[in-house]
Design a protein that fits this description.
Strand order of the largest sheet: 3-2-1-4-5-6-7
Number of strands: 7
Bound molecules: NADPH dihydro-nicotinamide-adenine-dinucleotide phosphate, the ligand Nc1nc2c(c(=O)[nH]1)N=C([C@H](O)[C@@H](O)CO)CN2
Number of helices: 6
Helix content: 25-40%
Shape: globular
Largest sheet: 7 strands, parallel
Distance between the termini: 46 Å
Oligomer: single chain
Amino acid sequence: MLGGNQRTDKLTAPNMNSPILVTGASQRVGLALALELAQAGHTVVSASRSVQPQAAHPNIVQFQADLCQATDRQALIDYLHNHYDGLRAIIHNASLWLDDGLDNLETMFRLHVEAPYHLNLALGDLLAKVEKADIIHICDETSSRGSKSHIGYAATKAALQNMVLSFAEKYAPKVHVNGILPGLLILKEGGDETYRQQTLKKALLEFEPGAGPLIETVKYLLASQYSTGSQVVINGGRHLKNRMT
Ligand SMILES: NC(=O)C1=CN([C@@H]2O[C@H](COP(=O)(O)OP(=O)(O)OC[C@H]3O[C@@H](n4cnc5c(N)ncnc54)[C@H](OP(=O)(O)O)[C@@H]3O)[C@@H](O)[C@H]2O)C=CC1
Ligand SMILES: Nc1nc2c(c(=O)[nH]1)N=C([C@H](O)[C@@H](O)CO)CN2
């Protein structure tokens, strides 16, 4: 039973002329997400600095871009406007988990804040051309509690999280804008076992989940007809561990 402004399921079906832009899809979580969406029939435009053979799929277009650079972002914006009728979704996944320092802070600001801000503003017209459009910001659960070891990373992810609220209001009702706040997903390759064990024990669910929880959440949000301005936490209950009760 569909009423009011509800959309029919057929509108969430993959539309080959309205791709999903996934930033940072050359490895790990972003790559797994891009391949999952491509296998579901979506056209995926993947924007990263490197082009990877692992991302080769008939439905994936790899667009090489350093999203810290406005000129590269503009080239991506122009490409999308020149080649597609609309844009089904933008998933801002590109990120750098850098140590603290002024240069690294500037880099993370450019990637986590400036790039999503620029792309959301410049691509709003393409998103508005499809019935069901989404913007998803991949934030971090440290956005809301800080991180003494990654102050700049957490601060820039917090800004990314805040922009969910502003763009959700700006683009309603045609474009839904939501944030995903992961805890642990995939540890860095080659990390030491001590760090791994310490990290796993920070959550109630003491295991390394991989890309799955994020992919499931993206699929839910793409299908949702009543979610915007939401922040979906997927952290294994980390916020409840070792509380001062
Ligand atoms: N892994 C985890 O446990 C957690 C991850 N997250 C978040 O989930 C998302 C995915 O995480 P994960 O897969 O580990 O991330 P990675 O750091 O492994 O990959 C980040 C991606 O961003 C791309 N990227 C980096 N810099 C740029 C740039 N200047 N321009 C364009 N693309 C760039 C990289 O591609 P390339 O180098 O080719 O440019 C890569 O594809 C991220 O947003 C992350 O912050 C949040 C919490 C936990
Ligand atoms: N861009 C990235 N962001 C984050 C990463 C990563 O590898 N790349 N990793 C983490 C950690 O796994 C953290 O969640 C647990 O130590 C956080 N963000």
